[in-house]
Amino acid sequence: MYAFTLERPATVEDASKLAASGSKVLAGGQTLLPSMKLRLAQPGAVADLGGIASLAGIRREGDAIVIGAMTRHMDVANSAEVKAAIPGLADLAAHIGDKQVRAMGTLGGSVANNDPAACYPSAVLALGATVHTTRRKIAADDFFLGMFTTALDEGELITAISFPIPQRSVYMKFVQPASRFALVGVYLAQTAGGVRVAVTGAGQGVFRHKGLEDALNKSFTVASAAAVPIDASDLNADLHATAAYRANLISVQTQRGVAKLLG
User: Fold this and answer.
1) Is 201 left (phi over 0), alpha (psi -120 to 50) or beta?
2) How many angstroms separate the CA atoms of 193 and 177, rounded?
3) What order of strands is seen across the sheet that includes strand 182-191?
4) pLDDT of 23-73, one tens digit each?
5) I need a labelling partner for 60 at 20 to 30 A (CA). Which of 2, 78, 173, 244 fits?
6) Residues 115, 124: contact at Cβ < 8 Å?
């Protein structure tokens, strides 16, 4: 690594000041640290959020589950509260990366990083979650702006994410074996406002699929999902899969999700 200064703020206020002054924020470190080790990133100062206890934890508030930004993947996966209210979210967390990644990676770090193949952004978007920051609250539909890009301003930190409890939901992940990221992941949620379908791994960022949502709102059946054409023109094509293959996976994973929810 290049030389850098490590800061360990004790409060959110201190962390915000460091971030505003140019320090790179360290949450779980699953992207930042490998990038630094490869000398692809060269922050002069790093602010480690691991010592701020108020940023971790899971609680129910009314009809929502609120999860602190520094809550580890394994804690979401093992939470009795999450399993009871949003089992699809607990299942998603249980299959992120491997055990070491789940023991270190955090909800807030994943969402703020917004890797186009990460799992959590699909849950945030499909469940219509609200991202709480040090400055405001941001609706999921307004948060994700593109590859590694979000609505967060410079120095603005995620403190928690509030997930409305759906009628039911499921995450269907087709794994890229080497990285354990989603080659294509589909989070399907039946909410009070209708069906929401969020796709990760297939495009330049997480996105909702209006065609699938419209079809499933009319008829929540496997056949209805299967009848929706999936446009491959804006999807990723790389050494792992063609755009057409990813388009087919979006359809197949959605059909599997509907079948699973229907039992």
Assistant:
1) left
2) 35
3) 168-175, 182-191, 194-200, 207-208
4) 999 999 999 999 999 999 999 999 999 999 999 999 999 999 999 999 999
5) 173
6) no
